Amino acid sequence: MSSGAADISTPYFLVDEGLLKKNLKILKDVQERAGCKILLAQKAFSMYYAYPLLREYLAGTTASGLYEARLGHEEFGGETHVFSPAYRQEEFEEILTYADDIVFNSPDQVRRYGRRAKEAGKAVGLRINPECSTQEGHAIYDPCAPGSRLGTTLDNFDEGILPLLDGLHFHTLCEQGADALEITVKAVEEKFGPYLSGMKWLNLGGGHHITRADYDVELLISIVRRLKEKYQVEIYLEPGEAVVLNAGFLVSSVLETVSNGIDIAILDTSAACHMPDVLEMPYRPPVRHSGQPGEKASTWRLAGPTCLAGDVIGDYSFDQPLKPGDPVIFEDMALYTMVKTNTFNGMALPSIVWRAEDGTKHLVKQFGYEDFKSRL
Ligand SMILES: Cc1ncc(COP(=O)(O)O)c(C=O)c1O
Question: Over 80: is that where the pLDDT of 301 sits?
Answer without folding.
Answer: yes
